[in-house]
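[step 3/7] fold_predict: job queued, chain A
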Amino acid sequence: MLSQEMLPVWIGVILLSGLLLVGQDCLAQTGLCDPDPCQSIPNAVAGTCSEIGGSCTGPSDFFCSCDGGYTWQGTTHTCEGSQPTCADSDEDGYGDPADASCTYPELDCDDSDEAINPGSTEICSDDVDNDCDGLVDVQDPQCAVPAEFGDLVITELMVDPDAVEDAAGEYVEVFNLSNNLINLNGLVLRDYFAAGHQIGQDLLVAPGGYVVLGRNADYATNGGVDVDYEYAAFYLLNSTDQVMIETQQGFVLDSFAYSDLRQNPGVAIELPLLKYHPDFNDDQNEWCDASTPLPAGDLGSPGFDNTCM
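[step 4/7] structure written:
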């Protein structure tokens, strides 16, 4: 209990409702920011607001904690600074992913070589992932080239599916004979009667790889075929027709003409593996019937090596 002699003394300290008072000056107020301004300040940590200064009856200033690398600026109520520095041994501007302080959007995949980073261009013949996208040489879309004559060959056709309607199950298989990654974007799939479809997106086929073009890309309704690209305005007649792959300028890269003598409902016609060449697939007598069962019951091997002889 204060004695009567001490009551007139105004140097006392009074603690009231979280306010630290010395005389009538408010030196500090903590935990009283409501609503919390730190929630809307970039790089500030929500829930760290502390009120400081001011008077006990008027507005006070406040303080927020900032994310790592940023410093609170009391005069502007902002968190200022820059992204934390991190290890970059080759000084190419891309941090070492082994350093936990590196938070760049793109990190280096070889911090010992300044020529290898996410900003580099893939070199297509050095067996190195130059641009750090996980794809090496001809696996990388940057290395894709337009097709030339001799690069592509038509190797399988499903002209008359039996398990599903023609509009759902027709497909054309194409093989890449070259050593290059081929981009089919812009090529035209055409038949003898001029019906055609121009491929309107990047469609990559690896060296020694297949691409399956179909009227219907829905595996559940096309007879169980993994179609890589769905075309429109092109179809295969069940009698006599011709399939052509052309450039935009009309140069034919490969073609194959067939008649109804080659057609068995539900059975794809295939080019034997040893005949994979645009000069060897012109004669329909060189082709043979598929024997590999598809999920819906038809026969074909779209996307895989042909086994007929």
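[step 5/7] annotate
Residues 166-169 form the longest helix (4 residues).
Residues 86-143 form one domain.
exit 0
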